[in-house]
Design brief:
The complex is a heterodimer of chains A (566) and B (464).
Chain A: H1 5-47, E1 55-56, E2 61-66, H2 81-90, E3 95-97, E4 103-105, E5 108-114, E6 117-122, H3 136-147, H4 165-169, E7 180-184, E8 187-191, H5 199-202, H6 213-218, E9 236-242, E10 246-251, E11 265-271, H7 275-283, E12 289-292, H8 297-302, E13 307-320, H9 331-339, H10 343-351, E14 357-358, H11 374-377, H12 387-401, E15 409-413, H13 417-434, E16 438-442, H14 445-453, E17 459-464, H15 472-475, H16 492-503, H17 507-523, E18 527-539, E19 543-544, E20 561-562
Parallel strand pairs in A: 2-11, 15-16, 15-17
Antiparallel strand pairs in A: 1-2, 3-4, 5-6, 6-8, 7-8, 9-10, 10-11, 12-18, 13-17, 13-18, 14-18, 19-20
Chain B: H1 35-45, H2 47-64, H3 66-69, E1 91-95, E2 116-117, E3 126-129, E4 139-144, E5 156-161, E6 168-171, E7 179-187, E8 193-203, E9 207-209, H4 210-215, E10 230-232, H5 247-283, H6 285-299, H7 303-313, H8 323-350, H9 353-360, H10 365-401, H11 413-422, H12 429-456
Helix pairs in contact in B: 1-12, 2-5, 2-12, 5-6, 5-8, 5-10, 5-12, 6-8, 7-8, 8-10, 10-11, 10-12, 11-12
Classes of the chains: A alpha+beta (566), B alpha+beta (464).
Chain lengths: 566, 464
């Protein structure tokens, strides 16, 4: 049955025309919708107090973002980096890191560490934000409260070098037996469990910050929960905290070194960690600085932005499950995996961000050794990429394990973009070079830690950020007693070296111990180094003096100022 | 009955002669057509539906026959060609394996001053030399993709030399065959940039070592290779993704996942829905009420929650494919709409006179259902089926997009779109191809469904 040609033709024409009209209407509707939404979005932002520029020259203020909402501002409970960043602006400990990462006096004008006795003399001009003087008792109170088992501080272990701290924290001794004494309002005396060479670096950590007992009890359990529920002794005071939305910090008139501070206020107007949102905020001139991902670099160059980079100190590595019932406890299998991958390739070809370095050792390149940097004095042992050798190790491992095929290995990982891409990269590398099947188990951070605790993994993409400026913060990571040693690596020789490094006060002895730890970890193929993390960021051309570094507040705006000439 | 006779014709005695049995009483002027032939004829007239049908056939061929013709492992990472656009230049010249460089100038590069090359620049490494200046406060090395044109926008900060003692640097970071502009900027005592800088234009050529050529099997095993020879890197007609995986083979693998879910799930749940709806409609009364209230209850169940529950029940650990629980969740939760539709039809058909007649003639229930009721609802069922396919494909794409579908390294259009989103601005092809395929597939099935509805339901026939 044939339909006449003419109808067919007109039918086709009408159908085509119709489709074109549909498409046109759809596009037009889309455009209208986009403009309407854009307009509506503009309305909501103006509704929330007007559009604030990144740099307000007139009022000498800047606008920044926070990656996430801090759980609270109680320094005794703080564990996350955002809390650390805000605390670094509104509080100050006995000592602090200066621009060159050296320890300098802060609340304490001078200090003395003599064997197991440390004494700090607090300066006369140290004041809380209500005008009260900062006293030695404030430190004593904060440290004792942080160690009180009832407080439940997760970072209390950082206070353990203080005598009796561990016993107090585990409830074996009363809180008052902690060997911290305020001799008078200006003098704080600390007795240490054993000589601790790095105690001056420890006291700049957030858990060591002072808390005034009066304001703590007045807050009635809500200390640090709101802007007006605590006192501040740092360069800035928090004047408002709209939970989940914004935070405002203003210059502290009572701060002893107020001349150092040149900004009048810092607005943390946005709380988000979505890198694309932040990029758009920066493009629109709403925030002063933004971190860039590898995909954004080309666009940033085209925008003629001034880019900077720094290393945030974190070292990332594949940790093995060393528990005896797991096949990854086999040394030859670990060696096979170690040699079957090329650390340079991951950093240079896959992650592609300047600032990242291949992690050839557990000890990052910036750590200080005896004279030069640690890595210059104790070069990392080489583990050259060698597929042939890796396959030989794999054969040996199969024989030792009595397996004809290695079962699929579970690689536990975070859900962050870099962890995802690294995990998929290694999955293919081990498949191609060793014929091993890798199952990626991507979990959020907290869940990843829980799974590591229960030993529910073979390999894990792990990372470690330093707590204080001493190689020990990395070295004790594989100590058998360390709770962060979730792969349960156990080597008495390494434990002994960690003990040596903890108790010795001689720099050379300690560095030799760290060098030996580095060698042992390599010989045991205890982990596969991935990268030392870097960050690339763009900064508003009028903002100077922004400090980004390993220790202290990150990012540190205390020394920042507006240069309106640009 | 009027067709063979003409009113104007004069009747003759011959017209009153007895008709012998078997003669053509009706005098059909057209060949007899079954319902399906009629529907097919109507569908054929609908150009949109036919184009869609061909598109679907093409997609099926792409998913099933494509991998036979394009035998590239979709999980294979080509580290030399990460995020490569379609049709990019593939030639590379062979060089000696990489060796550590201590900062000494190679012959031919051993004179000159200022920022200069220390060896031939290629994608393996760019080796830069300059004069160490012990009295300066420091240098920072930048790399840009266009010439530095005033301001302090030098591009990417590649390295920093705080003490100015070093006079060389080797850049190996993501070097592509392109022209780079390196700038060495002098720092002041505070570590801030000064306006003093030197800049160098470096054209980078792509290179590859003999070893790499062999392991990647770029040439036949017998071929002789020497330094300086040209080879071609692996072909990727649609480019590669952020890990250098071939887009074409990933799209084919993704098509298999999408079409599997898109065809199997609707087929199963429509089958279930027809059986359930037919039973309820045929039995009627209390049973019907009960069954349909249960269907209403199933409609109220949240899909995403059940999807997660099924993953738990099936013991699908993270890192394992979630396709089976997705299939089960789709089947278990999507049948009520078909059941309702079929039940309505059956209730209506039940009242028809021919059913009563058939029953009177002694037809059994199963005969009634299979012979009369189901065939008469076939049009509705087919239309539901074709409309269910795009929605299932879309569900799969959406779930894979949010990471609940396939596990890496398996590709699916949804997961590919999600991965492509991050590089949308710099490498749009990684998002556009999977997104386009999802759109085309969903559109094709929808238009076909539209055409089928028009063709199968004579009463709803449109007059376009």
């Amino acid at each position: 049955m044939k339909t006449p040609i003419s109808t067919e033709d007109s039918f086709v024409r009408s159908a085509g025309k119709q489709l074109a009209v549909y498409a046109l209407i759809a596009v037009a509707a889309l455009v209208v919708l986009m403009y309407a939404l854009h307009f509506a979005a503009g309305l909501t932002i103006t509704g929330a107090g007007g559009v604030v520029g990144a740099v307000d020259v007139e009022n000498n203020e800047i606008t920044i973002y926070l990656r996430e909402e801090p759980p609270q501002m109680n320094s005794m409970l703080a564990t996350d980096t955002v809390s650390g960043m805000v605390l670094g602006h509104v509080m100050e400990g006995l000592l602090r890191y200066d621009d060159n990462d050296q320890i300098v006096p802060a609340m304490a004008e001078r200090w003395e560490i003599n064997g197991t006795r440390a004494t700090f003399w607090i300066r006369d001009t140290a004041r809380w934000s209500n005008g009260d003087p900062v006293t030695a008792q404030d430190f004593e109170f904060a440290w004792k409260t942080a160690l009180d088992p009832a407080t439940g501080s997760q970072y209390s272990f950082i206070l353990y070098p203080i005598k009796n701290a561990e016993a107090v924290n585990t409830g074996q001794m009363p809180v008052d037996s902690l060997a911290v004494r305020a001799l008078d309002a200006r003098t704080l005396e600390v007795e240490l469990e054993q000589p601790t060479a790095y105690f001056d670096k420890l006291v700049s950590f957030a858990t060591y910050l002072p808390v005034q007992e009066k304001s703590f009890s007045a807050a009635n359990g809500r200390y640090g929960a709101d802007a007006d529920e605590m006192l501040y002794n740092g360069p800035f005071v928090m004047t408002s905290w709209v939970h989940g939305a914004s935070m405002r910090m203003e210059k502290n008139p009572y701060y002893w070194d107020a001349e150092r501070i040149r900004l009048d206020a810092i607005n943390a107007a946005y709380i988000t960690s979505d890198s694309n949102t932040l990029l758009n905020l920066y493009k629109d001139g709403r925030i002063v600085s933004v971190d860039l991902t590898a995909e954004m670099l080309e666009g940033a160059m085209q925008q003629r932005w001034q880019l900077d980079r720094f290393m945030d100190g974190g070292v990332f590595f594949i940790d093995f499950n060393h528990r005896a019932e797991r096949i990854t406890s086999n040394l030859n299998l670990r060696k096979a995996l170690l040699l079957a991958q090329d650390g340079n390739e991951l950093v240079d070809r896959v992650i592609k961000l300047p600032g990242y370095l291949p992690a050839k050792s557990l000890f990052p390149v910036w750590l200080q050794g005896v004279e030069k940097t640690f890595r210059e004095e104790y070069p990392a042992p080489e583990a050259p990429y060698n597929v042939q050798l890796a396959r030989e190790y794999l054969e040996k491992a199969k024989q030792e394990l009595g397996l004809t095929e290695i079962p699929p290995l579970v690689l536990l990982s975070d859900v962050s973009p870099v962890a995802t891409i690294s995990g998929q990269y290694y999955q293919e590398v081990f498949k191609r070079n060793l014929g091993l099947d890798i199952i990626i188990d991507a979990q959020i951070f907290r869940q990843r830690l829980a799974k590591m605790d229960s030993g529910d993994f073979d390999l894990v993409l792990n990372g470690w950020g330093p707590d204080y400026n001493d190689p020990l913060t990395f070295a004790d990571l594989f100590a058998s007693w360390n709770l962060n040693n979730r792969g349960k690596y156990n080597n008495p020789a390494l434990d002994a070296l960690v003990r040596t490094a903890q108790t010795s006060t001689d720099t050379k002895t300690r560095m030799d111990a760290f060098g030996a730890i580095q060698r042992i970890l390599h010989e045991d193929a205890a982990f596969i180094g991935n990268y030392e993390r870097g960050r690339v960021y763009a900064t508003h051309p009028q903002l100077k003096g922004l400090l980004r570094r390993v220790f202290g507040a990150e990012s540190d705006y205390t020394g920042a100022y507006i240069d309106a000439s640009n | 009955m009027t067709a063979p006779f003409s009113n104007s014709q004069v009747l003759t005695p011959a017209d009153f002669a007895l008709i012998t049995q078997g003669a053509d009483v009706h005098g059909l002027s057209r060949p007899s057509q079954s319902y399906w032939q009629d529907a097919w004829a109507r569908l054929k007239k609908n150009r949109r539906a036919i184009v869609s049908l061909w598109l679907i056939v093409g997609l099926l061929a792409f998913a099933l026959l494509g991998p036979l013709l394009w035998q590239i492992d979709p999980a294979r990472q080509d580290i030399d060609q990460i995020s490569q656009a379609p049709g990019a230049e593939r030639s590379a010249s062979i060089v000696a394996p990489y060796e550590f460089w201590g900062g000494e100038a190679l012959s031919g590069f051993d004179n000159g001053t200022g920022l200069r090359l220390g060896a031939q620049a290629n994608s393996q490494a760019v080796r830069l030399l300059w004069e160490a200046a012990p009295d300066a406060d420091g240098f920072r090395l930048y790399r840009n993709i266009f010439p530095v044109d005033g301001g302090l926008a030098f591009g990417l900060p590649i390295a920093e030399f705080p003490n100015s003692l070093a006079g060389f640097y080797e850049d190996r970071l993501d070097l592509r065959p392109d022209t780079y502009f390196y700038s060495l900027v002098t720092l002041d005592a505070q570590g801030a940039l000064t306006t003093e800088y030197q800049t160098l234009e470096v054209p980078v050529h792509r290179v590859i070592t003999v070893d790499e050529v062999r392991t990647r099997a770029l040439v036949s095993a017998a071929a002789e290779l020497a330094v300086g020879n040209e080879v071609f890197l692996a072909l990727h007609p649609l480019g590669t993704d952020y890990l250098g995986r071939d887009m074409l083979s990933r799209l084919m693998a993704g098509a298999r996942v999408s079409l599997f879910i898109g065809i199997v799930a609707p087929f199963l749940f429509v089958l279930l829905g027809v059986a359930y709806g037919a039973t309820a409609g045929f039995l009627g009364g209390r049973v019907d009420q009960l069954m349909m209230r249960f269907a209403d209850f199933v409609v109220a169940l949240p899909f995403l929650l059940f999807m997660i529950l099924f993953q738990v029940v099936f013991g699908i650990g993270p890192g394992e494919s979630g396709i089976v629980p997705m299939l089960v969740a789709l089947v278990v939760l999507s049948w009520p709409s078909t059941a309702r539709l079929v039940r309505g039809q059956i209730l209506q058909i039940r009242q028809e006179a021919y059913i009563s007649a058939s029953r009177l003639l002694g037809a059994r229930s199963s005969y009634l259902v299979w012979r009369h009721m189901i065939p008469n609802t076939m049009g509705v069922i087919l239309v539901t089926l074709t409309f269910a396919v795009p929605s299932a494909i879309f569900t799969e794409a959406f779930l894979s997009f949010i990471g609940m579908g396939v596990a890496p390294p398996t590709a699916s259009w949804g997961s590919m779109s999600n991965e492509g989103l991050a590089t949308m601005l710099t490498h749009p092809h990684e998002l556009i191809f999977p997104a386009l395929l999802i759109s085309i597939t969903v559109l094709a099935f929808n238009l076909l469904g539209d055409g089928l509805r028009d063709a199968l339901d004579a009463r709803m026939r449109s007059f376009e």
